[in-house]
Design a protein that fits this description.
The chain is α+β, with helices and mostly antiparallel strands. About 40% of the residues lie in helices and about 20% in strands. Strand 4 and strand 5 form a beta hairpin.
């Protein structure tokens, strides 16, 4: 029971218990309590008053719980409208709705960007079929300096080599790439589809 809730029942119970235990302390230990009860007769009277206050608070609390359960409002009834005899959808409204849906689908199709694999690319790691079209690619300008490239099986994390050349020193290297391959190039410049 929450001592501070309700109509004060909890306060009555707490006050009654404090008074009851204070009087019992004086009677059992034959000493003055923090209230300073002077003798045995007054301590007995205070104990009876504390007991009565505690009982009164408990009875009031129990009866208020019963009252709060009976005074709760019943949930409001749900009201639903009965369908009318003319519940058929309006043909004009259905046609307008269809027209709007078609217009939205047309606009969505117009803004949808389809990614196409690149026909030219530079340095990096590229997946054939996703980033690049399967085809033959060649360097666009002659190699100057160090150039290296490697073709691996896609998904092997560069471990399953198909072909490679780590020491291209010049010329126009050319590679044939197929689906399921990954191509890595470094220092070679741009590659173009042939």
């Amino acid at each position: 029971m929450n001592a501070l809730a309700g109509q004060g029942e909890g306060v009555l119970v707490i006050a009654g218990l404090v008074t009851l235990f204070t009087a019992l302390y004086s009677l059992v230990f034959k000493r003055r309590s923090w209230l300073g009860l002077p003798h045995h007769g007054i301590a007995t009277t205070v104990m009876v008053a504390g007991l009565a206050c505690t009982m009164l608070g408990i009875i009031a609390g129990v009866s208020s719980v019963g009252r709060s359960n009976t005074t709760q409002a019943a949930p409001a009834p749900t009201v639903t409208a009965a369908p009318t005899a003319n519940a058929q959808p309006d043909a004009d409204a259905a046609a307008k709705l269809k027209e709007r849906e078609d217009a939205v689908a047309k606009r969505e199709a117009a803004v949808t960007v389809k990614e196409t694999p690149a026909k030219t690319f530079g340095e990096g790691t590229w997946t054939v079929g996703t980033d690049l079209e399967p085809a033959t690619y060649r360097i666009t300008k002659a190699v100057v300096g160090d150039c290296s490239w490697k073709i691996t099986r896609t998904g092997s994390n560069g471990k399953d080599s198909i072909a490679y050349d780590y020491f291209v020193k010049g010329g126009f290297p050319q590679v044939a790439l197929a689906d399921g391959q990954t191509f890595n190039t470094d220092g070679c410049g741009d590659w173009a589809k042939q």
